[in-house]
Design brief:
Chain lengths: 115, 116
Amino acid sequence: GAGVSQSPSNKVTEKGKDVELRCDPISGHTALYWYRQSLGQGLEFLIYFQGNSAPDKSGLPSDRFSAERTGGSVSTLTIQRTQQEDSAVYLCASSLTPVQGGTQYFGPGTRLLVL
Amino acid sequence: AQTVTQSQPEMSVQEAETVTLSCTYDTSENNYYLFWYKQPPSRQMILVIRQEAYKQQNATENRFSVNFQKAAKSFSLKISDSQLGDTAMYFCAFMRLNSGNTPLVFGKGTRLSVIA
């Protein structure tokens, strides 16, 4: 079946603008994760969803970052009032439960550039 | 908290040769999974191999195998018969096993270049 998809592939925005990044997980995967990959920080965990709820938001770097998941499927990561340090690749992954395997499969990422 | 360390920022290998990438981790957990992911220039993170900590047998996937030393908290990746398409960033990752899902903790990565 189809893998994890993310849109847009690339996004250029001006400092102070809001952006929305979208993730469409593998069908049937109950867990969905957001990570950020930047040159200085490597791969950082941001937030994960189990169904529509987010048990772990510990990685969100500031209150400008928020995410939601609706219908247990598509998720949107929103960054408000973007800053230049938000420039990074945002990766989404999905998985089944640990009992069912638990391996996370990644999308192609969204490269965000804040000017 | 768990940490993952990849001590080799860059490595190179001749085509058809064998290369080993190192990974160590620190955890007080007993139940966990370990992974190696490959990220080529296309940016897509691709699963290479996975190891369950409760399994003593080392995982293998075709040309890829691991040397899992649980007591030493070491998890190295061996690539045999290296191919040009193996050129990529390789990330070692740790996932704590829980009743629910948990996020991955990644190392900083090793950039592997396969030379013709």
